[in-house]
Amino acid sequence: MERAIGSRIALATAVDVAHAAGVSQATVSRAFTPGSSISEATRDRIFRIAEQLGYQPNLIARSLTSGRSNLVGIGIENLRNPFFSETLEAMSLELAKAGLRSMLFTTRDDETADTPVQDVLRYRLDALVLVSATFSSGFASQCQAARVPVILYNRTNGDERISSVTGDNVFGARALAAFLIAGGHRRFAFIAGLEDSSTSRARESGFNAYLSEHGFAAPLRATGDFTYEGAAAATRRLLLSPDRPDAIFCANDHMATAAIDIAQFEFGLEVGRELSIVGFDDIQAASRPCYSLTTFAQRADLMVRATIDIIRGLRANDAPAAPVHRIINGELVIRTSARRPTRSAITASTT
Fold first, then answer.
1. 3 state DSSP class of 14
2. CB within 8 Å of 219: residues ≥ 6 apart
């Protein structure tokens, strides 16, 4: 139902729906609030009438009344990384199941989340999830002042006010180092992501520590910036070095696919026999026959659920809640991009 007001067309309101359905305006509001106490028959009737009248609830107006917007901001830095695009899809679905809506914003690799989030904070967000996006301490204070809890996904930053959900980066890197050593490799290399990435640093630290504990020198190192192009250039540098590695650990699978392509098609190497390449994440491309990538799988589904659980806990508390830090276990996935050990793979120690 539309009503003319001057030169404008006014859309149907909750009052119109309530009048047509023979219920109160509060009942209409409950019908559109997930989890509210209302019979299915009444909810269905209200939905049917609302559709006939063309009514849509004004979420911003409702947030002013309830103090809850049911809106979660998601800041993401690099959608070219398949792990993050897969995460975004899973997180959007899980938020919807929880009766929450998502607002997406992106940042460039060379900027923090501060600038685009200035606009996002104008909405009454119930929480803000930063998927490997960086931000300043001043921004964290601004979010705290606005009573918008921030959750870091797949990254930490040392700020004790900020909750986080990550995979077990150190253990995973140690497991990959153990697997490569057990496969008889002796000359190792590591392709890092962004230099300021806590995720890349943790994986490099775990990998290097395990090698050192077992008598191996520090691996050759190149930086791939978590991009395909950066990893391709890094692989060329490593394979042209006088002391060419026989095993390369890439800080994520996206870079590992580039390393495999360069090794095979530019250097003519048989990956898995002449050169082993391993990654981290277990993105969908990792299982394709053209890559068959040995990797340490991050359970994005469990990481997303842990993030949603934190959001639920934060929403349940009127007072600011203590930050939560969750580390989600993963597992080694063995395929053919790396030489298999002739003996049982060593189980990496977390100590």
1. helix
2. 188, 189, 190, 207, 208, 211, 245, 249
Under a CB-based contact definition with an 8 Å cutoff, are residues 286 and 253 in contact? Answer: yes
If you ran DSSP here, which 8-state letter would residue 267 be given? T
Residues 190 and 234 sit within 8 Å (Cβ to Cβ): no
Residues 6+ apart with CB under 8 A from 112: 133, 134, 135, 136, 139
> How many angstroms separate the CA atoms of 183 and 338, rounded?
8
Q: What integer pLDDT is reported at residue 111 of this predicted model?
A: 56
Q: Domain boundaries in the chain?
A: 2-57, 67-167+300-328, 169-298
CB 167 within 8 A of CB 132: no
Query: Is 277 within 8 Å of 256 (Cβ atoms)?
Result: yes
Residue range 2-57 forms a domain whose CATH class is mainly alpha
Strands 127-131, 188-192: pairing kind = unpaired
Is this structure's pTM higher than 0.70?
A: yes
For residue range 210-269, what is the model confidence (pLDDT) as tens digits? 999 999 999 999 999 999 999 999 999 999 999 999 999 999 999 999 999 999 999 999
In sequence order, what are the residues at sequence separation of 6 or more whose Cβ sits closer than 8 angstroms to the Cβ of residue 351? Answer: none
**pLDDT tens by residue, 145-192:** 777 888 999 988 877 778 999 999 999 999 999 999 999 999 999 999
Helix 253-265 to helix 82-97 angle (10° resolution) is 150
Closest CA to 322 of 164, 189, 179: 164
* Alpha carbon distance 218, 186 (integer Å): 11
- CATH for the stretch 67-167+300-328: 3.40.50.2300
Find the radius of gyration of the CA atoms of the chain.
25
List own/partner pairs for 76-79 with CB under 8 A and 24 or more apart: 76/104, 76/105, 76/106, 76/107, 76/131, 76/132, 76/133, 77/106, 77/107, 77/108, 77/109, 77/113, 77/131, 77/132, 77/133, 77/134, 78/109, 78/132, 78/226, 78/227, 79/106
